[in-house]
């Protein structure tokens, strides 16, 4: 794993955004794997500004998202469909039919998981996957204990994940209990992965990832055996690692 150490959130967003734009310009029909949460918002802002200033085109780009809550009504502002439209897609020249997110309202969720997994292959696999990291080491919504050979599946969200994500909802009771997520094996199939981390809340998870052992108890550790992972982490997210090394 390669590490790019940056000073703060703004710097993380700029560095990751710059690298993404270079890749998009050299492969204008690439498949981007995208993430939600607070972490990638700054990167998306960088991409939007670059699109306006430098006309980087997304006309032939395909995107596929990691996950979606189950059961949030269509158009709910906390759904990852809305998050992606508001924070990225509506501000680019991307074709909306080329953006894919699991359907958390599908009648048959098992069929939806299988469909999504096939879709990843059909669009050619993911060239670059962007990941955040949960405080408990989750990637996508793959909670501790998820098998490393898992494919797109339904998850029961861990209580601490629901608490962490409740800041976007009116109350914890409104946070869905289930989600659909790409599996760890689906993520590992990506040809390249950027994992972004900012802030002291992520410091323990980043220290575990950089020094810890390969274990299904810590989902992000699956990345240790992928050959093209770059961690872009700021000083605050590296405090525990720095103290221990
Ligand atoms: N499903 C998402 C993850 O993809 C994300 O990485 C994580 C961290 O979120 P944040 O970036 O807001 O800290 O939260 C959610 O649970």
TrEMBL record:
Q: Which Pfam families match?
A: Glucosamine_iso
**Which top EC class is named for this enzyme in its record?**
hydrolase
User: Where does the UniProt annotation place the signal sequence?
Assistant: none
Question: What are its GO cellular component terms?
Answer: cytoplasm
Q: Which Gene3D superfamilies match?
A: 3.40.50.1360
Domain Glucosamine/galactosamine-6-phosphate isomerase, chain residue ranges per copy: 13-229
InterPro entries reported in the protein's UniProt record? Glc/Gal-6P_isomerase, Glucosamine6P_isomerase, Glucosamine6P_isomerase_CS, NagB/RpiA_transferase-like
Record's catalysed reaction(s): alpha-D-glucosamine 6-phosphate + H2O = beta-D-fructose 6-phosphate + NH4(+)
Functional pathway: Amino-sugar metabolism; N-acetylneuraminate degradation; D-fructose 6-phosphate from N-acetylneuraminate: step 5/5
Q: What does the UniProt keyword field contain? A: Carbohydrate metabolism, Hydrolase
Picking any one GO molecular function of the record gives: identical protein binding
Active-site residues, record numbering mapped to chain: 67, 136, 138, 143
List its EC numbers: 3.5.99.6
Q: Which GO terms describe its biological process?
A: carbohydrate metabolic process; glucosamine catabolic process; N-acetylglucosamine catabolic process; N-acetylneuraminate catabolic process
Q: Does the keyword Hydrolase apply?
A: yes
- Coiled-coil regions listed in the entry: none
Cited function: Catalyzes the reversible isomerization-deamination of glucosamine 6-phosphate (GlcN6P) to form fructose 6-phosphate (Fru6P) and ammonium ion.
Which family is this protein grouped under?
A: Belongs to the glucosamine/galactosamine-6-phosphate isomerase family. NagB subfamily.
HAMAP family in alphabetical order: GlcN6P_deamin (MF_01241)
> What is the protein name stated in its UniProt record?
Glucosamine-6-phosphate deaminase
**What organism is recorded for this protein?**
Neobacillus massiliamazoniensis
């Amino acid at each position: 794993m390669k590490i790019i150490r940056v000073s703060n959130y703004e710097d993380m967003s700029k560095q990751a955004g710059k690298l993404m734009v270079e890749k998009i310009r050299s492969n204008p029909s690439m498949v981007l794997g995208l993430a939600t949460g607070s972490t990638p918002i700054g990167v998306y802002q960088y991409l939007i500004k670059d699109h306006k200033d430098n006309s980087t085109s997304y006309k032939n780009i395909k995107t596929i998202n990691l996950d979606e809550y189950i059961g949030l009504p269509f158009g709910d502002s906390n759904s990852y469909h809305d998050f992606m439209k508001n924070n990225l897609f509506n501000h680019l020249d991307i074709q909306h039919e080329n953006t894919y997110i699991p359907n958390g309202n599908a009648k048959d969720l098992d069929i939806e998981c299988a469909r999504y997994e096939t879709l990843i292959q059909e669009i050619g696999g993911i060239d670059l996957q962007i990941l955040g990291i949960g405080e408990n080491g989750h990637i996508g919504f793959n909670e501790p204990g998820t098998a490393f050979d898992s494919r797109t599946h339904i998850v029961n969200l861990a209580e601490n994940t629901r608490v962490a994500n409740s800041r976007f909802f009116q109350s914890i009771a409104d946070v869905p209990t289930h989600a659909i997520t790409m599996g760890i094996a689906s993520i590992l199939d990506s040809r390249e992965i950027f994992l972004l981390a900012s802030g002291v809340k992520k410091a323990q998870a980043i220290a575990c990832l950089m020094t810890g052992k390969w274990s299904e108890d810590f989902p992000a550790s699956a990345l240790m055996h992928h050959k093209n992972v770059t961690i872009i982490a700021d000083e605050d997210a590296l405090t525990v690692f720095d103290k221990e090394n």
